[in-house]
Amino acid sequence: MAERSARVAIIMGSQSDWATMRHAADTLDQLGVEYEARIVSAHRTPERLYDFARNARDEGFQTIIAGAGGAAHLPGMTAAMTPLPVFGVPVESKALSGQDSLLSIVQMPAGIPVGTLAIGRAGAINAALLSAAVLALQDDSLADRLDAWRAEQTAQVADYPVD
Ligand code: RP5
Question: Kind of enzyme, top EC level (predicted)?
Fold first, then answer.
């Protein structure tokens, strides 16, 4: 199978998750990390999930960011079918504010890990930063960009609050 240039896969259970997951994409853009975003639902498109997860490593992806809400099986099921690191982002749900998503993703049984992030935007951004940190272990240029990203963040914190 031909390798893709994208090193990170961003998958999500629904179009409605994109408002959250686009923050992961934006962060990877800022860091110059190529990614591919896809909709893959554990419940509505289980065969698409199987095909994606089984082939993700051969396609050239090195990490997977998986966002889902509600009964959020996508990150765990993906992790069950790939050796790649999977970072799970609990999407804020309407009914339970993402508590359901968080608990669905974080409580994996021993043996199949999902690195679970915070609910919503913060989790999406941090999943991208973690993916970049993993890739930076073997990419000095990316490591430099990640250091610069952090330095800029630090520089933007004012010493004193303003009214
Ligand atoms: C999950 O159900 C998705 O990840 C999404 O967060 C949630 C609601 O999906 P929609 O009904 O908005 O398509 O599978």
Answer: isomerase
Amino acid found at 22:
R
Nearest in space to 45 (alpha carbons), one of 18, 70, 22, 78: 78
pLDDT digits (tens, 9 = 90+) for 133-146: 999 999 999 999 99
Domain housing 97:
8-155
Distance 96 CA to ligand 1 centre (A): 13
Which residues does ligand 1 sit against, CB inside 6 Å? 13-14, 16-17, 41, 43, 68-70, 91
Assigned token pair, 139: 């990419």
CA atoms within 13 A on the CB side of 123: 27
Give the DSSP H/E element, type plus range, for residue 91. Answer: strand 86-91
Domain holding 94: CATH number? Answer: 3.40.50.1970
In a domain, 161, yes or no: no
DSSP 67: E
- Average pLDDT, stretch 87-91? 98
141 is in an annotated binding site: no
- Phi and psi (nearest 5°) for 63? -140, 160
0.90 cut: is pTM over it? Answer: yes
